Amino acid sequence: MATHLVYLLGGAALLLAVVLPNALRTAALSPPVVLLGLGALIGLLPGTGASAFSPIAHRGFVEHLAEFTVLIALMGVGLALDRPLSLRSFESWRRWSATWRLLAIAMPLSIAGIALLGWWVMGLAPSAALLLGAALAPTDPVLASDVQVEGPTTTEADQDEIDEDDEVRFALTSEAGLNDGLAFPFVQAAILLAASGSFADWGARWVAWDLAGKVVVGAVIGIVVGWALTKVAFRSSQRSLRTADSGEPLLALAAVLLAYGLTEVAGGYGFLAVFACAMTLRSAERGHDYHALMHDVIERLERLLTLIILLLLGVALTNGLLSALTWPAVLVAVLLLLVVRPASGMLALFAGRSDLRVGDRRMGPRERAATAFFGVRGVGSIYYLAYATGHADFRDVPLLWSTVALAITLSVILHGVTATPAMRWLDARRDGA
């Protein structure tokens, strides 16, 4: 009977995952909020075996599920971005200036701010505080879909004119695509600090390899894999290999696995490689419908994986995941969403030259404030915490899980409720202007 009930609940949840995105498109409520709540209710039902699930007890499973979900989301994000990034064009780099500011200023400030609060307010050891900061700093590419671009634009018009009109959605989407890979060096620093102690013992190697070398390896391999697949899919002399002509969208999934696998074998950052691979694929034949086909299959897989993770997180919330919470931890989670991320984002976007422009469009103060506020926390934080606690012995692991789970829950609710009205208001202001 219990097994049959699980099937029934799973079917109902999957049906919700299918219908909720369209049903809630105009409502001030996001699908993750509903799915998280449903998971919490499932965890309260007797006889379902839900109480047996714990991300601490099932750390390996949670790590790999979150890892694959983030990989799929990164491919979707890279394929969805219309704005090109040419390595040889300064103007192309300038069009991404909001992204670079969020990555170079907002993310390090967020890591430092959360780590300081973890050490000072929560009383965590330095290694655990740094891990908390690194895990909670990145904007999540999975749960931030309500404030991201919808998908690739395909048109027969001049391909150079394909671009996003919405600076807020573009900045948040591109930030989410890159910051998961760029936060990894700080997770590695937390692991080294827990395992080896003094920064003097590992600092030089960390800066040279973990902070710089692995980033270069990931970016290069991702670009090379994307370039090779582009040659095959769009320009192969063998018709049977031109998947763009046949419309086979599973090439996107093959790209995820190839880019990530090769990069991890080479010792680089696979998350960064997958996003670079997706951007390289998107750069070919920008007006081709094949990009939309690949994005659609990735989006559906991402939706399914997100469903599973949110249900499991909801189940864990009502079965002891928050039992280690302390009032200082609650304070840190609230400050992250209401102070640390907004303040660091505002500093990044208002510092120095405040005139962020793309063509004739200017990123106004309201758009910058919205970009700073919507730093959604989610599946990436789960992966980093599961990964790090499997590679080193950290103190207060239950407290770390409780704090991260609370931060994600609050982010899902806060950003899920405010995203639709806020973005609608910004759209109306921009259209009126």
Can you offer a commentary on this structure?
The protein is mainly alpha-helical. The chain has one domain (54-432): Na+/H+ antiporter like fold (Up-down Bundle), CATH 1.20.1530.20. Helix content is 72%, strand content 1%. The longest helix has 37 residues, at 199-235. The chain is globular, with a radius of gyration of 21 Å. The N and C termini lie far apart (60 Å). Residues 157-161 have low confidence and may be disordered.
At CATH level 2, the architecture is: Up-down Bundle
The Cα radius of gyration reads 21 Å
Work out the strand percent: under 5%
- Biggest sheet features: 2 strands, antiparallel
Give, in order, the helices and strands. Answer: HHHHHHHHHHHHHEEHHH
Count of spatially separate domains: 1
Low-confidence parts, pLDDT < 50 over ≥5 residues?
Answer: 157-161
Shape: globular
* CATH classification class: Mainly Alpha
CATH topology: Na+/H+ antiporter like fold
**Side-by-side strand order of the widest sheet:** 1-2
Helix content: over 70%
**Count the helices. How many?**
16
Average pLDDT rating? 87
Structural class based on helices, strands and sheet pairing? mainly alpha
Query: CA-to-CA gap between the ends?
Result: 60 Å
> How many E strands?
2
Organism: Aeromicrobium ginsengisoli
InterPro entries: Cation/H_exchanger_TM (IPR006153)
GO molecular function: antiporter activity
Transmembrane segments: 6-24, 33-53, 65-81, 102-122, 182-204, 211-230, 250-281, 301-321, 327-349, 369-387, 399-420
